[in-house]
Task: structure prediction
Amino acid sequence: MVISGFANTGGLGGGALMSPVLLIGFNYDATKAIQIVYSLVFGGAVGNFLNVVRVKDKSGKPVVDYDLSMVCMPPMLLGATLGVLLNRMSPPVVIIAGLIMLLIFVFLKVMKKANVEYKKESIKIAELKASMQPVLNDGTSQQDTSTDQSQDDISINPTDDKKSGKKGEATTSSMGV
Result:
C-alpha cells in the first residue's frame, strides 16, 4: 500500500510496481495479483480525483479538463473492451509477441526523442560555452584580439535608417561604411 501511495504521488499509478511485489513477494497467482492491483490503482485514481476536483487555475477554470476526458474516455473504454476480448481469444504467444512489439516501438520512439533532445541541449551548451569566453581588460574577448579590427572601430549609429527601416545599425569607422 505504501509503495502504491508513493507511485500515485509520482503519477505512475502503482500498477507497474505493485504487480511484481504481489507476484514475487507475496506469491499471488497472476489473476489474483492483477485484480488487487486494479483495485489499488482505482482507489488511487479516485483519491487523486477527489484532491483535484475543486482546484482551479489562475484564470478560474478547473484544473481537470472535462471536455478532454469526454473525448478520451470512449476510445479508451472501447480499447479496454477489445483488449479483454482479444486476450481471451488469442493464445499467450500472440499476446507476448504483441507486448514485445509494443515495447520495442515505445523504446525506439523514446530513444528517437531522447536523441533529438540531446542534440538540442548540445547545441545550447555549445552556444553557452561560446558566449562565456573570458573577457580581457579592454572589453574584447580573446577571439576579437586575433582580428585586424579592434573594438574601438565599431560604433553604434543611433539614428533611424528610414529606407531600410532598421534602427541603430553597427557601422565600422575604419572601413568608411
